[in-house]
Specification:
This protein is of the alpha+beta class. It has 7 helices and 11 strands. The chain has 2 domains: 2-95, Orthogonal Bundle (434 Repressor (Amino-terminal Domain)), CATH 1.10.260; 105-240, Ribbon (Umud Fragment, subunit A).
Length: 246
């Protein structure tokens, strides 16, 4: 009886994963987009689907929250249609789900980190649990963010000045996660040292293996760098400037 129950559970789990894959193909959503939208680690869901492993009920809940047109009854049982009808979506309680994968969180507590204490951006991204925030930010209607740090230098002046705070969302894949022309917090390997800056990222004329870092400050020249020299990357979602200390 125990073996039968385990096998029955495994078959059900595999069928759910197969239906999830069917939904993604129907909506033309990549696994990277899915994992990013539910804050799952890169490749975790795609590997689970490929090998028939459990992705956890908490991840399924996040998927349903982020993709309101996904029919949960179909996902769990295979009954009904893949997508909810327009009437079902129309009569759902207001505010239950958001249509964008880049969700807003009104009461989001964003940790503010000291980059010097964290020994750099790479160490911060790799060891969040070991780096204690110095404070927390709460900004209404801000998209989901991973953290915030202070800006140093004048490369983005006058848009940003030294001492301002940038709020970021980490990018895990340089090839798939870039939006050309957006502002990023980037750490680059320069002769073994970690160079951290806030820049616009544009396409490089040199080739696809490069990106162009562009400053707001006209005194700083654009610079092309190889993608494989990028050690950490995050999109800047917001900035905060303190005009008075009292």
């Amino acid at each position: 009886m125990i073996i039968f129950n385990v096998c029955k559970f495994s078959i059900k789990k595999i069928m759910i994963l197969q239906r999830l894959d069917e939904f993604l193909q129907l909506k033309n959503i990549s696994y990277y987009q899915l994992e990013n939208s539910v804050n799952a680690s890169r490749g975790s869901i795609s590997r689970a689907v490929k090998h028939g492993k459990n992705i956890g009920s908490n991840v399924l809940e996040k998927i349903v929250e982020n993709y309101p047109d996904l029919n949960i009854e179909w996902l769990m049982t295979g009954k009904g249609e893949v997508l909810k009808s327009s009437d079902e979506l129309l009569h759902e309680p207001t505010g239950k789900y958001l249509l964008r994968t880049d969700n807003t969180h009104e009461l989001q507590a964003i940790p503010l980190y000291n980059l010097e204490a964290a020994a750099g951006l790479v160490e911060l991204f790799q060891h969040y649990d070991e780096n204690k925030p110095i404070d927390f930010l709460s900004i209404p209607n801000l998209p989901k963010c991973d953290g915030a740090v202070f800006v140093t230098g004048d490369s983005m002046y006058p848009l940003l000045k030294s001492g301002d705070i940038v709020v970021y969302k980490q990018v895990h894949n340089v090839d798939d996660g870039l939006f050309w022309g957006e502002m990023y917090l980037v750490a680059i390997d320069v002769d073994g040292d970690e160079y951290i800056s806030v820049k616009y990222i544009q396409k490089s004329e040199i080739g696809d293996d490069y990106i162009k870092l562009v400053s707001q400050n006209a005194h700083h020249q654009p610079r092309d760098v190889r993608k494989d020299r990028i050690r950490a990357l995050a999109m800047v979602k917001a900035s905060v400037r303190i005009n008075a200390m009292k």
